[in-house]
Amino acid sequence: MVGAVSERRVALVAGVSGIAGSALATRLADEGWDVWGLSRGRTSVPAGVRAVQADLEDRAQLLDVLAGIGPTHVFHTAWKRHATEAENIAVNGAMVRNLLAAAASAGTVRHAALLTGLKHYIGAPDDQGRIETPDTPFTEDMPRRPVQQFYYAQEDELFAAADRYGFTWSVHRAHTIVGHAVGNAMNMGLTLAVQAAVCREEGRPFIFPGSQVRWEGLGDMTDAGLLAEHMLWATTNPQAANEAYNVVNGDVFRWRTMWPKIAAMLGAEPIGYEDRPRPLREQMLDAAPAWRRIAERHQLVEPDVDRVASWWHTDGDLGRGMEMLADMSKSRLAGFTGYVRTEDSFRRLFQQYRVGRVIPPLGDDVAVDRAQMPKELSA
């Protein structure tokens, strides 16, 4: 009987409608876990996952809806965006605190995993460029920046809850995540696909929106499937517990080589960095009518461009004036061997969106003549 209890694996995934949460819930269900997906609204959940609705800011509601579930493992992949970092800290810290208190009330939680990101090393957007940035690649032993940000508040809530309720923990610091979701606030892959479709519709080039540093410097990204694999690994391996880890694909690239590859996948004509950033919030200012035409013509599932493109997030990511690169040695030395080529992440994602009629199909009429590309973009 004791052995049966020890093998019970009940996952609670907060943020199941997001890129990371959806991929994680799918992976856990495929592995045979009993999976509950928590979100604020009546959003769809992956096959094999049971949905539960609650607001992470409402502890009483969480206690009510989680009663009887008895999760053994809690995964926090959600966040709420606010106008100021002070608000982000207050709200997102409380969300972690409330979730872990409610989940732990049954006395069944053995491990809690928290998803954060590389802003841990560079500060919140308002602090970037104002404070000193450590050299890349970022390593997990680098001290926190001398500023306040909500990732730190979330970590502190996780550590306090682990001490209070007696479970192990892990923190997973991802870079920009490549994965499937619609209506997500931070979705570079879908945003670029929408940008390319609008550019094709209007007969204009697919222009890199970011900074010269991001165009020329090294970078990396995080595949949602790899992130799910990493969270499962840290959750189920005792030697990996009570640690923070960077989680990136394992390859590195320059956007000056990745941009034309993405353009080719999307049937668009690429234009790289030229003398200044060209933010998508400016390039795509009038994109709504073009996207609605595309959606109606191809019977896409979402005609509202604001539900499929997060211009602000891609601008913020690609517009940074610093190189973004994380070291994975800590995970490798602890036994994690997962690897994904970022180019393949994008290719799979775009195909998944086409199959799901989220973005339009490609046809012979939009094939890119690579021989006509500038030399630096055709490589």
Automatic annotation (TrEMBL):
SUPFAM superfamilies from the entry?
NAD(P)-binding Rossmann-fold domains
Coiled-coil positions = none
| Superkingdom field | Bacteria
Gene3D superfamilies attached here?
NAD(P)-binding Rossmann-like Domain
List residues of the NAD-dependent epimerase/dehydratase domain.
11-247
Q: What is this protein called?
A: SDR family oxidoreductase
| Lineage, highest ranks first | Bacteria, Bacillati, Actinomycetota, Actinomycetes, Micrococcales
